[in-house]
Amino acid sequence: MEPRHVSSQAERASSPASTVPIPEPTGPAPVRVEMLSQPRFLSGARDLVSAVSKRCGFDDAACGQMALAVDEALCNVIRHGYDRRPDGKIWISLWPIEESGKEPTGIKIVIEDEARQVEPEKIKSRDLDDIRPGGLGVHIIQQIMSRSYFEKREKVGMRLVMLKMHNNR
Amino acid sequence: MEPRHVSSQAERASSPASTVPIPEPTGPAPVRVEMLSQPRFLSGARDLVSAVSKRCGFDDAACGQMALAVDEALCNVIRHGYDRRPDGKIWISLWPIEESGKEPTGIKIVIEDEARQVEPEKIKSRDLDDIRPGGLGVHIIQQIMSRSYFEKREKVGMRLVMLKMHNNR
Amino acid sequence: MLEVNTQNAGGSIVMTPVGDVDLSCSRELQGHIKRALEGKPKSLVVNLEKVPYMDSSGVATLVEAMQIARKQGTRLVLCGLQDKVRSIFEIARLDRVFTIASDVQAAAAS
Amino acid sequence: MLEVNTQNAGGSIVMTPVGDVDLSCSRELQGHIKRALEGKPKSLVVNLEKVPYMDSSGVATLVEAMQIARKQGTRLVLCGLQDKVRSIFEIARLDRVFTIASDVQAAAAS
Ligand SMILES: Nc1ncnc2c1ncn2[C@@H]1O[C@H](COP(=O)(O)OP(=O)(O)O)[C@@H](O)[C@H]1O
Ligand SMILES: Nc1ncnc2c1ncn2[C@@H]1O[C@H](COP(=O)(O)OP(=O)(O)O)[C@@H](O)[C@H]1O
């Protein structure tokens, strides 16, 4: 059940793809958080993501945005995936994107759950002009990240892969 | 290898014990970080611990101190346990200490590794009057926490259990 | 968990939440705002100068407040947005939908 | 990774590290301090006003600096300690071992 690797992608639905391929790190994540689906742990997850992003060379504004993107993704898992059940598991995995020996040029963030599976292409925010409460999280994630996509995990749950490069490509 | 529970304590060496027993949470931790033994991930671990401590009802000063205690413990695992090898695994587990339905009254923090095993009673800081560089980490941890103790894990590695209560007992 | 300070001066309310507004407390903020709007005040200023962080659950609460306020003729103004909070309003393109003032004084004058 | 600004005015050096000082960069700080002490300056002020956080690896670097400074007759003064940094010096009972001034001006006058 516990995700150790991000495997090759079946059933992937990409957000507006960048043309330049991003070198996706594979193998076990050097930092990984396992948390229960409780809103009180969001701030801890945010602050960890922000600090690791900082160490990956992002400026404070970008670190804050990355923390926001992760918060939005976690909120969606808690609300839509687990229907606010407090005992669901969520994994946040972080990889600095770097060639060995060099300074990082980006970060890869993956969020996984054991919650309801939905078709990746159905996960989208409201039209921005259709102003009503809610319906913004996925849009925020897509705006902030260089690239992001949802996929079904092999047996249960969903996976959200987010990549952010310094040059935003 | 991966620690899922904090099991009953064999070979435990306590720091100066408080007289009032602290209710130690058991079972899987609601928040757990797995990280490689690399100093660049210390800031992420600190900020997560500080934010979760905040949600456990500690004030900013106490949260900062708890982050420091965890940093010191992680530094020791990196330097003494893994001899600065960058590929060792470290787990940080956090439990709010609470009766169900009530606000937390403290936090339990456990740090585990797969590194060298040492006799718990040998892990201590220098005499504070013997001023020289280093030799302060364990003292800092003991000063900050309500209670802390090292133990050998069942097969490999060490475990440091730290408890901090609001009233510091 | 969320501290919210509310001042009412002659039918104009200034509400100042203190701390991060995320999913763990956005419903609390919603409760405070709804109670404030129930009295149909002339204006409601939500002063965000003590909110370092807000996620879309907080924004949703403010969009809902705006819709209620419009219907009943209460003027809703946001003020004191810190950088990170301003950023989410911009990403959601809501910075032009809300009336946003720099601080409480400017909000009163706006 | 650690930004360190160093000013030398007539044999008195003021060194201002910027950012958290932990195990990931305490050796860098050590290098900066050793290079500064090599010139046997009259005084070395380590201005910590831009250091929000320090762990015991940073403190060890400063203890080492103090010992070198004493031997060679350089006056070492710390200043600008933020709350969290002051806290670790207090816990380690080093707040009375170091000469600690409030800011760079006070350090020069001390
Ligand atoms: N983790 C998830 N699991 C299941 N469905 C999701 C998930 N994340 C998003 N969705 C779906 O995508 C929609 C849009 O999400 P979002 O843009 O965050 O707005 P909101 O959550 O406010 O509806 C949600 O309403 C939901 O149907
Ligand atoms: N995780 C650990 N694994 C093995 N030995 C440890 C560990 N933590 C502490 N020690 C031992 O305890 C001693 C005191 O640690 P500390 O007070 O942090 O000072 P320092 O690390 O600077 O020597 C260390 O020198 C080391 O011998």
Shape of chain C: globular
Q: How many domains is the backbone of chain A divided into?
A: 1
* Share of β-strand residues of chain C: 15-25%
Rg of chain C, Å, rounded: 12 Å
- Spatially, the strands of the biggest sheet of chain A line up as 1-5-6-4-3-2
Distance between the termini of chain A: 33 Å
**Average pLDDT number of chain C:** 97
Low-confidence stretches of chain C: none
Q: What structural class do the secondary elements of chain A suggest?
A: alpha+beta
User: In the CATH hierarchy, what is the superfamily of chain A?
Assistant: Histidine kinase-like ATPase, C-terminal domain
How helical, in percent, are the residues of chain A? 25-40%
Q: Helices and strands of chain A, in N-to-C order?
A: EEHHEEHEE
Give the gist of this structure.
The complex is a heterotetramer, with two copies of chain A (169 residues) and two copies of chain C (110 residues). Chain A has 169 residues and is α+β, with helices and mostly antiparallel strands. In chain A, 26% of the residues lie in helices and 23% in strands.
Explain what the structure shows.
The complex is a heterotetramer, with 2 copies of chain A (169 residues) and 2 copies of chain C (110 residues). Helix content of chain A is 26%, strand content 23%. Chain A has 169 residues and is an alpha+beta fold. Chain A has one domain: Heat Shock Protein 90. Chain A has a 6-stranded antiparallel sheet with strand order 1-5-6-4-3-2, with helices on one face. The N and C termini of chain A lie far apart (33 Å). Chain C has 110 residues and is of the alpha/beta class. Chain C has one domain (3-102): Transcription Regulator spoIIAA (2-Layer Sandwich). A 5-stranded mixed sheet of chain C has the order 1-2-3-4-5. In chain C, a hairpin with a 2-residue loop joins strand 1 and strand 2 (12-18). The longest helix of chain C has 17 residues, at 56-72. Chain C is globular and about 30 Å long. The model of chain C has no long low-confidence stretch (mean pLDDT 97). Chains A and C meet through helix 1, helix 2 and helix 3 of A and helix 2 and helix 3 of C. Strand 2 of chain A pairs antiparallel with strand 2 (31-36) of chain B. The site of one adenosine-5'-diphosphate has 16 residues of chain A, from helix 2 and helix 3.
